[in-house]
Amino acid sequence: MDFLHLPSFASMRVLVFGFWVVTLFSEFAVGITRHYTFNIEYLNVTRLCHTRTILSVNGKFPGQPLVAREGDRVLVKVVNHVSNNVTIHWHGIRQITSGWADGPAYVTQCPIQSNQSYTYNFTITGQRGTLLWHAHISWLRATIYGPIIILPKHKDPYPFEKPHKEIPIIFGEWFNVDPEAVISQALQTGGGPNVSDAYTINGLPGPFYNCSSNKDTLKLKVKAGKTYLLRIINAALNEELFFSIANHTLIVVEADASYTKPFETHTILIAPGQTTNVLLKTKPKFPNATFLMAVKPYFTGRGTFDNSTAAAILEYTHPSHKPTPQNLPLLQPTLPPINATDFVTKFTAKFKSLGNDKFPSKVPKMVDKKFFFTVGLGTSPCPKNTTCQGPTNNTKFAASVNNISFALPNSLSLIQAYYSKRSNGVFKTDFPSVPINPFNYTGTPPNNTMVTNDTKLVVLNFNTSVQVVLQGTSILGAESHPLHLHGYDFFVVGQGFGNYDENKDPEKFNLVDPVQRNTAGVPPAGWIAIRFQADNPGVWFMHCHLDIHTSWGLKMAWLVLDGPEPNQKLQPPPSDLPKC
Mean pLDDT for each consecutive 10-residue tract of the chain (580 residues)? Predict the structure, then answer.
């Protein structure tokens, strides 16, 4: 790891990741510049007796943690040594006026082509906690992902008990075949994609899969009577996941790099793109048992999904430093049923912003602009003289926001088209603020489920306070949609089932301490209401973080105009910005 110009060695923090340790030296309160080089390169990896050549960063799978402090400037030079075009997204980083460094292909940059490089340059402003980085083109994030760990400013304590150790836990999905072939086939046939073959914890599937040996199981060694901070990340492609540790309680203290009011739970639900920091208090004495840590999916849709369980082992070290006795009982957690929406609803409702004097909840109390977006599946016609495997005769699966299936440009990124005043023929600015053809969103679906393909943006004046109601639909099945907004955190002020009622539901909004997130699940056949202050100029992607839904078109973009002050304007493009 590459930590430059560290002015002080006063204290040291250790982060355990997989089987290796990241050591970070603390520095003074002044932010420093950290330099990283991410080489995109091939790596041979064997899981479930299948050896695949995957795409990796610096030959690691999962990728290395990017570690910084609040206030630091980060420069990451990404060098592409593979044949695929690639981009990296720093998921959850606000990117204040630095939209060129956000990463989604054809939104804020053209991809980095083979044998080319690009330096992502951003400053971490007003954020601390756990986020993630991942590829943001096609399905390359299946293997190109890793943690972002933002430590508080020097001498700023955590608003909870200081942990003995901090441990990143990152979930993924393993495919025995190339995921690029999976999505390519799905888009060609119009049908649902083949599902993954396993879930992984820090890259390892665990003991419940055929041909998954002891060495493919993460063993997390802990001491009795200690408190550990688990930085939990869901980097899976297409599944929301339950996680639990047998006979242990987890205390949730942070979501998406925003502190929460602490609450206890035996199980967490975490959607792709979400992060959850939990405190794990170990047993006071050596327990004469080992404990399974298990991950399995939450799924409410109609299609196929990977209905398997990944597992790791929590193992206590013996106090006398003797080897841990063999044949200790292995206790297993009880996870909710696959479609446990009741549990998910109650669990989600427990998240509240910390909302104290140091970390106030800055939810907009009044809003300038209101939007009502339907999110869900739909169909598109099969090309002439071809046969498709979509949901109905000769159709393809599609997905949309307000019935617009978003089409990305390919000759110029959206932000370049805006900045260089070349938007003609690239994008339009008349994205509908409400559905053009209203219907009973969660009732019997309309006969016509065809979507419209287009590239339309919503334009916002700088500092507009915004409310968006995201309404799930029942077209082709009601399912949960974890929506991610780039460039912003938002406040989830309300959620419910059925159709949103503009007259009654706002009365129940939480405008005191709503949870602050960058990714939030729209419940199946339900809705969420979010608010944010549009104080970051640029073009910002918003999409479902289930990659198959993104591929089908469940995405859109916001164009936030410059403000009057110099620090409220989008910075000029960097000189090494990739060309299409």
Answer: 29 41 49 96 98 98 98 98 98 98 98 98 97 98 98 96 98 98 97 97 97 93 97 98 98 98 98 98 96 98 94 93 84 97 98 96 98 98 92 94 97 97 96 97 95 98 98 97 98 98 98 98 98 98 98 98 97 97
- Eight-class DSSP state of 160: S
Listed by start position, the domains of the chain span 29-155, 160-352, 369-560
Domains 29-155 and 160-352 share a fold: yes
Note the CATH architecture for domain 160-352. Sandwich (2.60)
d(CA 467, CA 287): 50
Considering only the C-alpha atoms of the chain, give the largest distance between any 2 of them, rounded to a whole number of Å: 73
Spell out the CATH class of 369-560: mainly beta
Alpha-carbon gap, residue 82 to 79, rounded angstroms:
9
φ, ψ (nearest 5 deg) of residue 328: -70, 150
324, exposed or middle or buried, with CB in 10 Å at 0-12, 13-18, 19+?
middle
> Tokens 């907009």 sit at which residue?
364
From CA 495, how far away is CA 374, in angstroms rounded? 14
| Main-chain phi, psi angles of 309, to 5 degrees | -130, 125
Task: Write down the pTM of the prediction.
Answer: 0.95
Residues 6 or more apart whose Cβ sits within 8 Å of residue 327: none
Which CATH superfamily, name and number, covers 29-155?
A: Cupredoxins -  blue copper proteins (2.60.40.420)
pLDDT of 540 reads 98
Nearest Cα to 129, choosing from 268, 257, 247?
A: 257
Give the three-class secondary structure for 396.
strand
Contact (CB, 8 A) for 89 and 135:
yes
Helix (H, G, I), strand (E, B) or coil at 320: coil
Residues 6+ apart with CB under 8 A from 157: none
CB-based contact 285:225 (threshold 8 Å):
yes
